[in-house]
């Protein structure tokens, strides 16, 4: 099976391209009126667990804008759910885990599940999405990093500091590492099942990696991401996005990952320098910059491509798209990349 548009996969391999590929983190979501129409009728996990809905939401932004890759509609928190940790998505609040993991006793009830049994609906959603995409563009599967998942499991909700998650790591490291290893084992099985179901690449979101000092990052985040890369890299390209993790780009570049995501606080030049200049980079438009007028967005995108270079590069935002971005501004971002000419 070959894809009609394989720009994204070429860029991940570092092959020469006419223009870089483009997609947006969290592209299937709240800034799209067609998404809001579905959201009004079904709650969050119903949308995730119903293959017809998840596949429809996945292809909505592709139909509207024609990005070079689709990302499956789901959430990183389906993993703790499958591990026997209750996860709720509260409207206007976000994730809520009523029984957070704070002790060895809490941890004992956490399982490494059979992912086909507990997360089979994700594999069904992948198959339904592949049919709808009709080999037009590649499909990205994803998971949270073990550290980012631990943050929610221990804190019990979103946080600016994730102080309770850090407290567990620093006062009960044995418990923290056992939890991280259980999450890692589940994630490896999960991503392998996703690849078998048809995704063309996977991305690991380490959204809260930048909360840790460089030394703590090695101990509580990076070593587990490395295990995931080791287990997956021969089966599929792996992208690692660590928000605020520019300090780890050197290790990441040697890890066997195909590409590294960077956020907007790191310049293209610095990211290329820190990652050694060869590996494919992905990013890093400030999501809030999509609130600028479309003509400014286009200029800034062309400048960004010139700074990263058109090859070994995937155009993206530096984090997820914001809900208040006008649809025409998102269009300007995608169109700017498609209109890009070297020079
Ligand atoms: O990128 C995509 O379009 C695919 C879908 C996707 C969702 N979540 C759907 C979603 C992806 C890739 C995620 C990943 C995710 N989820 C991350 C990592 C990326 C990042 O933004 O840092 C994290 C940290 C989560 C956890 C999570 N899920 C939070 C903090 C929230 C609430 C805040 C928010 O953005 O709304 C969610 C809920 C969620 N996940 C929504 C969507 C579309 C919104 C809730 C809803 O639609 O009812």
From TrEMBL:
TM region(s), chain numbering: none
User: Listed GO cellular component terms?
Assistant: cytosol
Q: Where in the cell is it found?
A: Cytoplasm
Give the UniProt keywords, A-Z. Cytoplasm, Decarboxylase, Lyase, Porphyrin biosynthesis
**Which class of enzymes does this protein belong to?**
lyase
Marked site: Transition state stabilizer = 75
- What EC number(s) would the UniProt record show? 4.1.1.37
Uroporphyrinogen decarboxylase (URO-D) domain location is 21-30
Annotated catalysed reactions: uroporphyrinogen III + 4 H(+) = coproporphyrinogen III + 4 CO2
GO biological process terms on file:
protoporphyrinogen IX biosynthetic process
| Entry GO MF terms | uroporphyrinogen decarboxylase activity
CDD domains, per database record:
URO-D
Where does this protein chiefly localize? cytoplasm
Q: Which InterPro entries match?
A: UROD/MetE-like_sf, Uroporphyrinogen_deCO2ase_HemE, Uroporphyrinogen_deCOase
Pfam families noted in UniProt: URO-D
The pathway this protein participates in, as annotated, is: Porphyrin-containing compound metabolism; protoporphyrin-IX biosynthesis; coproporphyrinogen-III from 5-aminolevulinate: step 4/4
Binding annotation for substrate: 26-30, 45, 75, 152, 207, 319
The record's listing under HAMAP family reads: URO_D
Q: What is the annotated role of this protein in its UniProt record? A: Catalyzes the decarboxylation of four acetate groups of uroporphyrinogen-III to yield coproporphyrinogen-III.
Assembly with partners or alone: Homodimer.
Q: Member of which family?
A: Belongs to the uroporphyrinogen decarboxylase family.
Spell out the protein name for this chain.
Uroporphyrinogen decarboxylase
Specify the species: Maribacter stanieri
